[in-house]
Amino acid sequence: MDQARARLWREGDLWAIEVEIDGVPYAERDYADVASATHAIAQILRQQAARSPDLDQEECPHCDAALDLVACSQCGVAAFVRTCEHDVFTRPIRIVEGQLYCRACRP
Hints:
This protein is mainly β. Helices cover about 15% and strands about 40% of the residues. The longest helix has 16 residues, at about 35-50. The termini are far apart.
């Protein structure tokens, strides 16, 4: 990670965030309070700074769906993956029998 930017704003009764890392925007989320929203920003930035980017997917060329940060339920490695239905089987971390698995841990 070379550069990051986070935005925080209110939408009605909820707070929304957008995190941009190295020029790529990641999923917006709604939070009930500002403390939860800022904690989520810190957690995303901390995880991104401490991990290898080789698992991250590029934005989908077929749609504008956001990327989402998910973690393997076995080893804890995290990756930004597509949230759309395109190329589901090429994702570095995906759901198998209700659990999230990275490529190394996948049964």
